[in-house]
């Protein structure tokens, strides 16, 4: 593409670079318009001797077509493509779930001159119909080769996808001494139940358990038998060590401690484990005491991702440190 200044008759078929106004200052022609033969008399009437136009090369793709084609490259499962306008296309969710982004592919595309993709932050929990990203082609056209380069940088699942929340049967275990049981239930259960309901899931069972590894192991086994495909534990005190009661109960059942501790505040004392049951690795969140609050904390960051069947481990939890100082803590 090249920019030229041409008389109106010679500019037919090319793209107007700037808005043109009439004598009253009203917009007569909008930039981006492909000039037609019938526009020439009006341009002459406006006293325009020449116009700045974009002249496309044979291999150039118009901004609207380029935006659609880039959207088709970027959009993965759970993502809908909007209509193009002025080189822009918006992407929206077709299901609820966490937004997964191939950050390297996104960077590769945005490094190509003239192509831009702006997204929500990765792992944002989105709703059906919510806007996820906007694509803007900056020039009036881009070379075909640039779109080919974008496609080469992108995997089969695109750059953006929304993962469905497939684990929807949540078991809850509250661990406390008998004397503290009522207080723990009042303090913990409403916020946990609210999070489960907000995500469209069901609490299949809630077990009150004493702080004994044998009893906790039996309670966790009962939740698995009840059909729980994800378990949240909380209690009188947070898990304070890998050798604490809940981790030992997990190990007694043959489970795996994926990680203990998180660079997130509130939520440092997180336990993440997996219990093996009926061929499945059932995630277990050992929630810190902050789970009693509905303010955002570590549970809100990982629960949707686990419900979407993402296998989280040490690296994924460690990565939460970037942006891990959450709202309530920043105000402190």
UniProtKB/TrEMBL annotation:
The keyword Magnesium applies. This is Molybdopterin molybdenumtransferase. Belongs to the MoeA family. It comes from the Bacteria. GO terms for molecular function: metal ion binding; molybdopterin molybdotransferase activity. Keywords: Magnesium, Metal-binding, Molybdenum, Molybdenum cofactor biosynthesis, Transferase. Its cofactor is Mg(2+). The keyword S-adenosyl-L-methionine does not apply. Residues 171-308 form the MoaB/Mog domain. It catalyses: adenylyl-molybdopterin + molybdate = Mo-molybdopterin + AMP + H(+). Pathway: Cofactor biosynthesis; molybdopterin biosynthesis. Catalyzes the insertion of molybdate into adenylated molybdopterin with the concomitant release of AMP. Its EC number is 2.10.1.1.
